[in-house]
Each structure stands twice: as structure tokens, then as C-alpha cells.
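DM from R.C. (forwarded with permission)

"hey, sorry to bug you on a friday — could you get me a structure for this? deadline for the figure draft is monday and I only need the backbone to look sensible"
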Amino acid sequence: MILVLRALGVGDLATAVPALRALRAAYPDQELALAAPAWLAPLADLVDAVDRLLATDGLGELACTGAPPQLAVNLHGRGPQSHRMLAGVRPRRLLAFANAEAGHLDGPAWFAEEHEVDRWCRLLAWYGIPADRTDLALRRPAPSQMPVGVTIVHPGSKAPEKRWPAGRFAALARELAGRGHRVVVTGSAVERDLAARVAAAAGLPPEVVLAGRTDLGELAALVAHARLVVSGDTGIGHLATGYATPSVLLFGP
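My reply, with the result:
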């Protein structure tokens, strides 16, 4: 088994897609297990490289049963905590950035300002596993019950200090609707009030507010078949990249 740690969010998983695909190509006969939060399972499914998701919340003990993995790969960070987490399952080999504090002297040096996609591709290249940084495409799910051809306005973000003001999102949504775009407003369940305020201020009906009404798989389908994504959140921005959906990211204040 190849065990990969990436216990973070949507955008974080999306930036690791080229590395995951490279590992799949390098070890085609091995099961590839991804240690990540359980709610990311629908997205992991769309990478087409992961065989199984090992539900993991943050950096703690890995519930990894059976024989030790042949290979553990740290696509989470530079350690030491993530290194030690993987070392705890006794892999035959650990691929990770060098970290003396974790007792891992193998691997390349960490560059703080490096783009996440390049970082994980460089890590694997150091170990002789070539990765294509442009291999970011996700499998396109069927639209199912999601509307097709809409313009997605996503005003929320994990970091509130980065949010573009709600009034400006509303003004933009109003302008887009006036130009013939079918606008929907998305977000998490806790962002539903924000999404409703943006829609109301834009003069849009309540039914366009999809915040809190889509799971991750449905959101991916919505983005995959959208006309445009306008967002203040890098997670949905990375989904747009994975589907080559035109996108504009707006950050505040």
C-alpha cells in the first residue's frame, strides 16, 4: 500500500492532484490510500488516482490497520508533526521534506514561498518520481440535480479577513444578472446568511441561494458545468481550475 497524507481542505487536495497522479503512475499495482478528512471523499473520488480514503481529522494518530505501508508520502507539510504521524505506521520508506527535528534527514529542502503544486511535484522529483504540474484536471461528474450553465458567486471564505465586502459581491451579482447571467450564490452551511444577504441586495430571488444546500460532490458538479465562477475562496477557485471553468478570484478588504 502507498499511504499519502493530505489532511487539509478542498484547495489543498486540488493542488496535490499532479503528485497523486504521479504516485499512481509510479506504483500502478499498489493500493493508494489518502489520509484526509472524511468529507473530502467525493473530491478524492474525482481525482481518479485514489483507491481509498482513510478518514483523518487533522494531525493525530492514523487508524491504519494491517501490514505497514510499503511507502508513506507526506504531502501535508514539512514536519515534524506530520512526519512523526506517518512514521507511526512504520512504513518501509518515507518520502518527505528533510526535517532534522523529526529525524528525517532524507528529502529536499523546504521553500516557504513555493507554489503548492510545484512543491509536491518537486518533492516527488527529488525521489525520482516525475510529476506533471499541469495535470490538474478532475473527472467531470454528471450534473445530476445541479443547474447547468450558471454563474456562481461564492462570497465566503475560510479566512474572514480575506473576504471581499458582501456589498461589492451583491453589486457584481446584480450587474452579471443584468447582463444575462443566471446567477447562483454558493457557500457552506455557516455562510448561508451571508449568501442570502448578497442575493437579496442583488435583487435575486431566494431560490438562487444554494449555500448550505450542496455537498462537496454537488458543488463540484455545479462548478464543472458552470459558465463562470466568481469567488473569494481558493477552494472553489481550485475546483474551477480542475474543470477549466472561467473564474475570477476576489480578495479583500
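R.C.: lifesaver. Strands lie at 2-5, 32-36, 52-55, 71-74, 93-95, 151-154, 183-185, 228-231, 247-249.
me: no worries. The first strand starts at residue 2 and ends at 5.
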